[in-house]
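Interim report to the steering committee. The following record documents the input for NADH-quinone oxidoreductase subunit H (287 residues).
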Amino acid sequence: MQIMIKVVLFLILAPVLGGLLSGFDRKIGARFQGRQGPPLLQPFYDLHKLFSKQSVVVNGVQDFLVGGFFVFVIFTGCIFFAGGDLLLVFFALTLAEVFLIMSASSANSPYSAMGAQRELVQMMAYEPMMLLAAIGFYIATGSFNVSEIVHTATPVIAVLPGMFFGFLYILTIKLRKSPFDISTSHHAHQEMVKGLTTELSGNVLALVELAGWYEDVLLLGFVGLFIINLEWWSILAAVAVCILCYFLEIFVDNLFPRVKWDKMLGSTWLVTLVAGGINLLVLTLVY
């Protein structure tokens, strides 16, 4: 019964929180540029407008693939917040990304094809760190299950500081923030229009945006997993850390210019090897 309640709460609250985070992102980004910015609820207005518009379908399979992406993102979040297996969470999230890449590749467009190729490069960049983090959680707590990890006596970040830093680094890729927003971009300077979503429109594009909100909440939930333990106040601390990390990502997004794919890949693997690898080595020697 508790699992069903958690799943329902995620399904209802995640898009609300994700939309507010998107509005907060736009507002802070505008302030960095000396503008007032749109209203905090503007993402919800935009989503409603997209759902009310007719979508132009490039081919018959594209809608199915976007639907698969949407379903698997929600499925991944439900597993995580229901206390499921971390490995299953990461594998399901990867499968969701594969659906999105296939959707972009199915369109006869050089921009979406280029976006799909760059998305594959991004997956190569962040997947090793995500897998190392899952392994680190297992060594530190003896379990891959989220429900057991949150019941540890001390915050996991105490023994996984390198993993936390590494995950925060790849979070810039997953949140599609500069300098690593190479496959698609919310900024106007992107040389390939919107990359992955160039050929999407109407309610199909709205599903991608909504799935992004669900995914943002899931990723911040993983950040909070480093902090939450048996103490009741750890939940408040986790929320504060998530807000701080999201603000840091917005700050980096507005401060750094976008880099090329090779620099993104090289720097990410370097951080994974140094921060994640050394942390994992120390962890295996201690535990």
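Residues 110-141 form the longest helix (32 residues). The committee is asked to note this result when reviewing the revised timeline.
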